[in-house]
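Teaching assistant here, posting this on the class forum so everyone can see the example we discussed in section. The complex has two components, and the goal was to see what a joint structure prediction looks like when all of them are supplied at once.
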Amino acid sequence: EIVMTQSPDSLAVSLGERATITCKSSQSVLFTTNNMNYLAWYQQKPGQPPKLLIHWASTRASGVPDRFSGSGSGTDFTLTISSLQAEDVAVYYCQQYYYPPRTFGQGTKLEIK
Amino acid sequence: EVQLVESGGGLVKPGGSLRLSCAATGFTFDSRNMNWVRLAPGKGLEWVASISDNSIYISYGESVRGRFIISRDNAKGSLYLQMNSLRVEDTAVYYCVREEGSGWFQYWGQGTQVTVSS
């Protein structure tokens, strides 16, 4: 099983500032045949289901604001929110879909400072 | 519009059984792999089970293997999760999820609460 480890577990950022969450996989999720990273990011607000933000490590899902961006390759990935808005308060998860079982990181709770 | 509506959750005693259902509309159900994912209190997301579009490929998370059974009825546009020998640690919100492309999860239901307690 591929273990996904996020850091930090919680994060407090001022409105308008940058927020950065990292995700590390226990083995590479880069498929060399197509040069794609099998990595997704989700946002979950209290009482709501998770929302897909990014897949293929850096491709924003439809309707996701461009202040959200994903980067990284192989085993190390980053989710960046360029200018934090109040509505971005949530728990964020990374997930690998390179190899079954599909595993999630433990989550990062993002709050306003 | 894609809609996934779960039902069947509730309160059950340890060792009991429960069957969750998910009604899918707004897309061609029999062309999509489907999954169950859960969120336990104070924990993170955990993938539970998946089933391919034609039910040939089925897999389970280690924590539920041998106790839960995933199935689908393509004619009815429905996904199911039969949960047996329930444990306190199975307490969670269970989400019905449509799989996209190579395996990410774009569409989620609102979830159904399962509470296992004596």
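For the discussion questions: The first strand of chain B starts at residue 3 and ends at 7. Chain B touches chain A at residues 35, 37, 39, 44-47, 50, 59, 61-62, 95, 100-106, 108-111 (CB under 8 Å). Think about how each of these relates to the inputs above.
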